[in-house]
Amino acid sequence: xxxxxxxxxxxxxxxALATELNKGMGLSHGKTAAVLETAFxxxxxxxxxxxxxxxxxxxxxxxxxRPGAAKLPGTVKEILHASLKLGDRRDRxxxxxxxxxxxxxxxxxxxxxxxxxNYRWPVNRRLANHLRRERDAMFTFLFCPGLEATNYRAExxxxxxVVTPKVWGGNRTERGAHSQSVLVxxx
Length: 187
What we know:
By secondary structure, the protein is mainly alpha-helical. 66% of the residues lie in helices and 0% in strands. It folds into 2 domains: 11-60 and 172-186; 69-150, no CATH class. The two termini are 27 Å apart.
């Protein structure tokens, strides 16, 4: 039994709501189905919800890149790691203001050279465009002592949802647990 009587318009919104109820708010598959039926008259089984979550998971996963496509993310990772190390050295008073400014300028110039390129692979194009939009904020922590460089604290706030036991929320299979991890990270 799947999505019965589902209206043609709004089906995607119903699946999005079900995903938020189950993965974001922790309602079981059964309670999620009950909310959809009570509030909207949508008759859906727990199995139908599980299948819908699998479809959302497939669409939400990153696409697989070709062999050379990982070069941009790898280079960006190297630059960001170098900036974190520089910030750590500054915080331990191991680098003076002048050397900090020089090293920071070199990192910015290196990133700018990487972002000037045109990328053919859509995933790399999307990453490069995102980094171009966020370029002015990427090294802010190197200009402002005491400013956190990462979103570590926000990630830790999400941690309880990520580490919920496998059987919580109806995830009794490997596929269900995989859906849980992908969809909760999106939410």
